[in-house]
Amino acid sequence: MFWALDYLCLLAIVVTAALTVLLRNLAASVLALSTMGVVLTASFVVLAAPDVALAEIVVGTVAMPVLYFVALGKLRTVIRENADLGEERGP
Amino acid sequence: MRTVALVVCITQVAIACSLLVRLGLGPTVSDRIVAINAISIQLAVAVLFYAVAADRVAYLDVAIWMVAFGYLTSFIWSRYLERGLL
After folding, report:
1. Any idea where the MrpA C-terminal/MbhD domain is (chain A) (predicted)?
2. Among A7, A36, A39, A77, which one is most buried in terms of CB atoms within 10 A?
3. What is the pTM of this model?
């Protein structure tokens, strides 16, 4: 039954990668990228590599989204201008 | 016991996969932050039950780090929504 975990993790990785590419809102796209880091961590645990999973948590969940977050802050995107944080009014 | 833990683990991962719908469709960024927080917690509990199913103690560290950094991620994004800049 361990194969079900493998397939579920692979499905979630593919879905989050597609969401990262397809979402129009920049903040939502970076959130999908962060989610892919979390799901990759679970996938590494299923593949019996817990130390790689620890490195993936630090890099994929926190460090890389924070870098994108600083870049979005430098770009002064729609986040500050849209009061309701709507979806359709992308850059 | 191990089979029960594995079934619970698979169910938790399936719930996390269904939460991806809210991540994709959520109309506001706040919905997506709540969705990523829930996904992080669900996958941490899944790793916890996987440690029981596989009988390895080393996976418990991963669960602790997943919970801590999931909280940190939602905290950072909430601050981003509040202030705009870092």
Report:
1. 12-76
2. A39
3. 0.84
Do A66 and B39 make contact, defined as CB atoms within 8 angstroms? Answer: no
Contact A38, B45 (CB under 8 A): no
Dist. CA B72–CA A41, nearest whole Å: 16
> In chain B, what residues touch A38 (CB-CB under 8 Å)?
36, 39-40, 43, 66, 70
Q: Write down how long chain B is.
A: 86
Q: What is the pLDDT of residue A44?
A: 93
Structure tokens at B68: 């801590």
Residue A48, Ramachandran bin (φ over 0: left; ψ between -120 and 50: alpha; else beta): left
Using the structure block, give the residue that is written with the tokens 């905290």.
Answer: B75
Q: Average of pLDDT values for B37-53?
A: 93
Residues of A in contact with B80 (CB under 8 A): 27, 69, 73, 79
Rounded CA separation B20/A18 (Å): 11
Which of A55, A29, A28 shows the shortest CA–CA distance to A41? A55
Q: Evaluate whether ipTM surpasses 0.85.
A: yes
